[in-house]
Amino acid sequence: MKRHIKSNVYWVGKVDWELKTFHGHEYSTHRGTSYNSYLIMEEKTVLIDTVWLPFGKEFVRNLAEEIDLSKIDLIVANHAEPDHSGALPELMRYIPDTPIYCTANGIKALKGHYHQDWNFHPVKTGDRVSLGTKDLIFIEAPMLHWPDSMFCYLTNDNILFSNDAFGQHYATEFLFNDCAEPSELWAEAIKYYANILTPFNPMVTKKIKEFVSMGVPVDMICTSHGVIWRDNPLQIVEQYLKWADNYQENQVTLIYDSMWGATRGMTESIAQGIWEENKELTIKIHNAAKSDKNDIITDVFKSKGILVGSSTINRGILSSTAGLLEEMRGLGFKGKKAAAFGSYGWSGESVGMISEALQRAGFEVVGDGLKVQWHPDDAAIEECVRYGKQWAALL
Predict the structure, then answer these.
(1) What is the 3-state secondary structure (H, E, C) of 186-222?
(2) Active site positions, annotated
């Protein structure tokens, strides 16, 4: 069922309440998601994006109940990733000659996914197509967050169709930001940015400034996931500029894994020292083996600094910690301090290995870290508390 957005613009997407992981199992979606597709019904009819493949037949069936599919004049593929383009093969069975407007990289990606030579029309920034009294203007947005990504802008209605930018993995019955629960919405928005867009901070800033310089009014931002921004829509744009600028809050995050509780005890004692030194700091503690990794990454994103700990095992570090360090390396955080700690029985390589991994990930590593042999006794606990105080003083 289509839902009215503004003027002759309608939402024709799918809300996925059951989705719990995204990008395979790389991203947790505790609150599900939506796949937002839009129908513009002016003198020309335009379909912007589709939905994920498992909902392809349902999407096409529902769309056909709203409009004669042969009346769709063109399709816009803002991004080729299958959560946006997955229904295209099913749709194109019915309207095989309908032109698909996308970037040159979008053509490559769509051909790579579906191995079809559809009626592609490559577009660049500034290209436009007339829909009658309104135009659709295309804006390339490479690496927000794939090379093929683009936005499009509907004149007169002043709607920016932003695809993945400014979205959230958030299933809700409310279509607009002013109807959604604010704490849920912003929690999902920052998690989305931290885990997906952090590596592309410079491109985010550049593209937003480029778009702002165009001087076009924006009354609404229609994303590909989550809510549509209609109440003060530029608030999310302003927040993106803050998040892209090596963002941090007054927070420190401690991440650990422990075999027999020794490293866990170190973590809690270090946290005690941090709290005693600076009671204004927000302290977050995560067991890397038990906490959701994307929630951990979100806390890392918010933090001024992090401490990462692991027991030594097989002359190395525990796998949960190693995996998280690799995740952080890929995200490329900047402007954050970090240190390593851990317990050991006889060899004790974990602290050095964590320090090296943190350095490779772009953190400013402070000192050589802290090692404790066996289970911490009273003296070792006091040493951990002192270490926490010293570390907090650096933030």
Answers:
(1) HHHHHHHHHHHHHHHHHHHHHHHHHHHHCCCCCCEEE
(2) 23, 79, 81, 83, 145, 164, 192, 225
